[in-house]
Structure to design on (532 residues):
């Protein structure tokens, strides 16, 4: 009985979480242009999607931003973790405090604060300003994923490698880095996802002419969303779903260490 | 050697000063000056005007209600998930992260389609001859949107703190004669408080400050404090007033952070 209630509850929450996603997938096959009516089945939006250069450009911007910001944030964040872990308590508190600011602060305030910074320094709003903003809110995700791995490290293995004649850099990449890798990977993935899904901060840091999928959708909200957008989201979602299933089905490694 | 290692934090130090600390100082700077650059408290005091204080009051109310609902939904769910076998761990997290790959605006927009007067939900209810719901463009729809978007931020930290619980402690309580309710109230719940606290802040702050959910599901009739600030920046171009209101907003965020750090001293309740 208890098991039944548990199952039932999980199913309800699952439906709640995935109902809008199912709706969007259905809409992508809707012949009628409005969301309100079902006009019959069609795949034409999928064809038109690849002819819609505005959407494709927004997609390219979105992916490029996500990839670049996640990569740069991973490098800066991981390097910082290595140093912070050995610092004096005061410095560590400072760094972890700073790291928590973008995590805990409201996105709208982060967005506004960066907008004011760019305005004051007379920067031109465009791709670069969005990229800088995305790196800024991505670094904390990397640090918070790598730091726990850093703390679990056994110092003696690194010292042993040094005793056996390895230089600090060689010892790091041979001994420490593999241990950190799951955390780094998680951080990168989180950063990539957050960048991809961000709207609010991009909204305040973008310039005219540069759009990501989110900002494109926001401007379309008033005019009506182009059905190609549903088709594109469906493709993205299904791709990620398939990738995740493949990764999960692949023979599990001994210690997965993905403590998200 | 040691100094060389410290250099690795250099890029992050520069980055965080340039893109986190200085921008925040700018918000305070703009918030305390008027258009001519003179010092003023007017932008902060503007929160007391009827329209602004009403927006803040609605935001507070809606975000509190959605935080409570998120907690009530998430806790039992986290308990069920924590009792599943360990190797399903990754899968569970993925189930909650996966929706984020479908754009946040589109997901919220989909609720509009679901909730509309002749939308999917009402069609199903009509078919089952049940009373229909008309909550689109009301506060209820905004709350639903908040709960929907932020529920994962409540589930994951609670799940993490429950999954880390030492089974021996629970077994010890049972051995000493505690029943299910006692074990929960005196052992499980107190030990999961860091997760709860973290979840509450992770839901409350974005809910308090959102302007998108209210724009999509509230039919632009219900203005939250986030909507007011957004309009000051993008339409009215009154950065000073927008910054002043942001400072007020930050005071509430800082308050909730202080409360959470008191309740979660060791910082155990991380989402990650």
């Amino acid at each position: 009985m208890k098991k039944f209630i548990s199952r039932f509850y999980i199913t309800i929450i699952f439906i709640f979480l995935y109902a809008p996603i199912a709706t969007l997938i259905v809409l992508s096959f809707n012949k009628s242009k409005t969301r309100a009516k079902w006009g019959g089945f069609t795949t034409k939006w999928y064809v038109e999607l690849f002819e819609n250069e505005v959407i494709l450009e927004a997609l390219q911007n979105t992916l490029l931003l996500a990839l670049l910001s996640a990569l740069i944030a991973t490098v800066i964040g991981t390097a910082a973790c290595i140093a912070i872990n050995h610092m004096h308590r005061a410095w560590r508190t400072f760094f972890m405090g700073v790291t928590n600011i973008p995590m805990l602060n409201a996105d709208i305030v982060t967005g506004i604060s960066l907008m004011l910074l760019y305005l004051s320094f007379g920067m031109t709003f465009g791709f670069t300003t969005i990229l800088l903003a995305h790196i800024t809110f991505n670094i904390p995700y990397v640090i918070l994923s790598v730091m726990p791995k850093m703390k679990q490290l056994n110092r003696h293995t690194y010292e042993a490698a040094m005793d056996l004649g390895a230089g600090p850099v060689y010892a790091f990449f041979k001994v420490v880095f593999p241990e950190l890798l799951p955390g780094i990977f998680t951080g990168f993935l989180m950063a990539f996802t957050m960048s991809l899904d961000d709207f609010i901060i991009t909204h305040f840091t973008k310039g005219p002419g540069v759009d990501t999928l989110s900002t494109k959708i926001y401007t379309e909200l008033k005019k009506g969303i182009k059905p190609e957008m549903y088709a594109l989201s469906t493709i993205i979602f299904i791709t990620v779903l398939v990738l995740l299933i493949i990764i999960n089905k692949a023979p599990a490694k001994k210690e997965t260490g993905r403590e998200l | 050697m040691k100094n060389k290692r410290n250099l690795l934090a250099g890029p992050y130090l520069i980055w965080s000063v340039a893109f986190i600390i200085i921008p925040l100082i700018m918000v305070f700077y703009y918030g305390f000056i008027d258009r001519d650059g003179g010092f003023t408290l007017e932008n902060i005091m503007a929160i007391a005007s009827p329209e602004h204080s009403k927006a803040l009051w609605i935001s507070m109310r809606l975000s509190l209600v959605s935080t409570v609902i998120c907690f009530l939904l998430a806790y039992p769910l986290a308990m069920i998930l924590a009792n599943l076998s360990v190797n399903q761990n990754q899968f569970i997290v993925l189930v909650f992260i996966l929706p984020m790959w479908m754009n946040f605006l589109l997901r919220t927009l989909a609720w509009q389609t679901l909730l509309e007067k002749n939308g999917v939900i009402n069609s199903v209810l009509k078919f089952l001859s049940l009373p229909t719901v008309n909550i689109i463009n009301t506060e209820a729809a905004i709350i639903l949107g908040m709960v929907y978007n932020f529920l994962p931020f409540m589930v994951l930290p609670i799940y993490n703190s429950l999954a880390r619980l030492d089974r021996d402690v629970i077994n010890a309580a049972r051995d000493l004669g505690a029943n299910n309710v006692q074990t929960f109230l005196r052992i499980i719940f107190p030990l999961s408080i860091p997760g709860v606290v973290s979840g509450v802040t992770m839901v409350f702050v974005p809910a308090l400050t959102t302007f998108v959910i209210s724009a999509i599901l509230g039919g632009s009739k219900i203005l939250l404090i986030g909507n007011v600030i957004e309009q000051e920046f993008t339409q009215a171009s009154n950065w000073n007033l927008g910054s002043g209101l942001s400072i007020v907003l930050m005071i509430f965020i800082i308050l909730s952070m202080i409360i959470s750090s008191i309740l979660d001293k060791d910082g155990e309740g991380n989402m990650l």
